[in-house]
Automatic annotation (TrEMBL):
<protein>
    <submittedName>
        <fullName>CheY-like chemotaxis protein</fullName>
    </submittedName>
</protein>
<dbReference type="InterPro" id="IPR011006">
    <property type="entry name" value="CheY-like_superfamily"/>
</dbReference>
<dbReference type="InterPro" id="IPR050595">
    <property type="entry name" value="Bact_response_regulator"/>
</dbReference>
<dbReference type="InterPro" id="IPR001789">
    <property type="entry name" value="Sig_transdc_resp-reg_receiver"/>
</dbReference>
<feature type="modified residue" description="4-aspartylphosphate">
    <location>
        <position position="57"/>
    </location>
</feature>
<keyword id="KW-0597">Phosphoprotein</keyword>
<feature type="domain" description="Response regulatory">
    <location>
        <begin position="7"/>
        <end position="124"/>
    </location>
</feature>
<dbReference type="Pfam" id="PF00072">
    <property type="entry name" value="Response_reg"/>
</dbReference>
Length: 127
């Protein structure tokens, strides 16, 4: 990428997981985060927030991660924004399915709070 990763749209319905990730990414690593509790919240905030990257939970009530990704891609401003799925479903065929949907990476849950920021930076640099 032509600039440093700084702005992350983070979509996670579990408040405990969201709190840990926000603490690690925003407070400790200095990213600017827009945390959303659901896909519809992400669609409402994404364009105005202008994320460098979207970190997206796969399994959420209502609009799941893949549906949210499809909704985000409908906005011209977000058509090429990198998306990383975060999920407990990381069997090889599942990961391949997420990548086929257009994700640039998959992070397994439970994630390691000590390495999450670096994992995202590594995925960003591979783009």
């Amino acid at each position: 990428m032509d600039h440093e990763l700084t702005r992350i749209l983070y979509v996670e319905d579990d408040p405990d997981i969201q709190a840990i990730a926000v603490m690690v990414l925003e407070t400790i690593n200095g990213f600017t985060l827009e945390a959303c509790n659901c896909g519809s919240d992400a669609l409402a905030k994404a364009v105005q927030f202008k994320p460098d990257l979207v970190l997206l939970d796969v399994m959420m009530p209502g609009m799941d991660g893949p549906e949210t990704l499809k909704g985000l891609r409908a906005f011209p401003e977000l058509a090429t924004t990198p998306v990383v799925f975060m999920t407990a479903k990381v069997q090889p065929q599942e990961v391949e399915g997420y990548l086929n949907l257009g994700a640039v990476g998959v992070i397994a849950k439970p994630f390691d709070p000590m390495t999450l920021a670096q994992e995202l930076r590594d995925i960003w640099l591979r783009q």
